[in-house]
Amino acid sequence: MKYTYYGQSSFELETGGKKLLFDPFISPNELAKNIDVNSLKPDYILLSHGHGDHMADLVTIQKNSGAKVICIYDILVWLGKNAGITNVHGMNIGGSFNFDFGRVKMVSAIHSSSMPDGSYGGNPAGYVIYTEGKKVYFAGDTALTYDMKLLADENLDWAILPIGDNFTMGADDAIKATGFINCKNIIGVHYDTFPPIRINKSEVTEKFKKAGLNLQLPPIGGSLEL
Ligand code: NI
Ligand code: MN
């Protein structure tokens, strides 16, 4: 499956002939000016929580593409009321569902969640995606948490973890998280977008390497084969 990075925590997985777009925050991101939001035509948009740096472009991209949104049930209600978006699959923490590209499990994240207008956004979430015989974990915005140990026996192939610190776990806690989830192939997200989450990429890469981990930090617009 193909991973393409769009900055902050936004990325696309192309799998089983479908395009899954995660946490679209692109047009307000000064670092992502090379990405044209109107060129994105996903089949699904998966949302981890309601913060602007995860859903700023969700409504535009959903209207352009007709994509089905996958999110926590509370955000399903908000999208219907506030954006007239009804092609939404609501889930909640711990639940999984079979879609036409594979299975999605919604898992817990330790963070906060509110909608752009300040209204209730339910709990923040992460996802495990089961597709093409592979398992990929997207942690969403989260602190390091013992709940991650629940994934230890999943045999995850890849994990997409926030590493920028301040609003989420930073690199050191993300390295601890790799032990909790038992996964060595990591893609870092949620860094560099704003001053408090700027990282020294070579230092962070070196830390992961010393811990025996494969950390990938593709450029915005760059792709990886998972
Ligand atoms: Ni957030
Ligand atoms: Mn965030």
How is this fold's topology laid out?
Blueprint: E1 2-5, E2 11-15, E3 18-22, E4 44-46, H1 52-55, H2 58-65, E5 68-72, H3 73-83, E6 88-91, E7 96-99, E8 102-108, E9 125-131, E10 134-138, E11 158-162, H4 171-181, E12 185-189, H5 201-210, E13 214-216, E14 223-225
Parallel strand pairs: 3-4, 4-5, 5-6, 10-11, 11-12, 12-13
Antiparallel strand pairs: 1-2, 1-14, 2-3, 7-8, 8-9, 9-10
Bound molecules: nickel (II) ion and manganese (II) ion (MN).
Q: Which stretches are poorly predicted, pLDDT < 50 over at least 5 residues? A: none
Give every kind of bound small molecule, once each: nickel (II) ion, manganese (II) ion
Radius of gyration: 16 Å
Can you identify the CATH superfamily? Ribonuclease Z/Hydroxyacylglutathione hydrolase-like
Strand order of the main beta sheet, please?
6-5-4-3-2-1-14
Task: Report what the structure shows.
The structure is a single chain. The chain has one domain: Ribonuclease Z/Hydroxyacylglutathione hydrolase-like (Metallo-beta-lactamase, Chain A, 4-Layer Sandwich). The relative contact order is 0.15. The strands form two sheets. Strands 6-5-4-3-2-1-14 form a seven-stranded mixed β-sheet, covered by helices on one side. It has a seven-stranded mixed β-sheet with strand order 7-8-9-10-11-12-13. β5, α3 and β6 form a beta-alpha-beta unit. The protein is globular, with a radius of gyration of 16 Å. 19% of the residues lie in helices and 29% in strands. It has 226 residues and is of the alpha/beta class. Nickel (II) ion binds at residues 49, 51, 111, 141, 167.
